[in-house]
């Protein structure tokens, strides 16, 4: 398995609740829960799920994916234009 997260610097968005990382070359989008502090005081990334964009593009769910991402973009655009 390729360690794309070590080979490529992602486009990253950090919020108080999540970290979103997009790896364009690998075709991966990851979403992690909020950062937390372990017993040694080190900052750790929360549980993470990666969406394989390449697999999504090859699936029969393109219309559904388009609807989801379109709705997310509309929400962002509404907030930006407030």
Could you name the ranges where pLDDT drops below 50 across 5 or more consecutive residues?
A: none
* Rg calc: 15 Å
Oligomeric category: single chain
- Beta-strand fraction estimate: 25-35%
Tally of DSSP helical segments: 3
Main pleated-sheet profile? 4 strands, antiparallel
**Overall geometry:** globular
Write out the strand line-up for the largest beta sheet, numbering strands in chain order: 1-2-3-6
Can you count the beta strands? 6
Which structural class do the helices and strands define?
alpha+beta
Furnish the topology, listing elements before pairings.
Elements: H1 4-7, E1 11-14, E2 18-23, E3 28-33, E4 36-37, E5 43-44, E6 48-52, H2 53-57, H3 62-80
How would you describe this protein?
The protein is α+β, with helices and mostly antiparallel strands. 34% of the residues lie in helices and 30% in strands. It has three helices and six strands. The chain has helices at 4-7, 53-57, 62-80; strands at 11-14, 18-23, 28-33, 36-37, 43-44, 48-52. Strands 1-2-3-6 form a four-stranded antiparallel β-sheet. Strands 4-5 form a two-stranded antiparallel ribbon. The protein is globular. The chain starts with a helix and ends with a helix. The mean pLDDT is 92.
Quickly describe the structure.
This protein has three helices and six strands.
Characteristics of this structure?
alpha+beta; 6 strands; 82 residues; two-stranded antiparallel sheet; four-stranded antiparallel sheet
């Amino acid at each position: 398995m390729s360690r794309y997260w070590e080979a490529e610097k992602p486009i990253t968005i950090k919020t108080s609740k999540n970290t979103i990382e997009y790896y364009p070359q690998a075709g991966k989008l990851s979403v992690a829960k909020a950062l937390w502090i372990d017993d040694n005081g080190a900052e750790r990334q929360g549980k993470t799920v990666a969406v394989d964009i390449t697999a999504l593009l090859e699936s029969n769910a393109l219309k559904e994916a388009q609807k989801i991402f379109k709705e997310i973009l509309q929400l962002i655009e509404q907030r930006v234009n407030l």
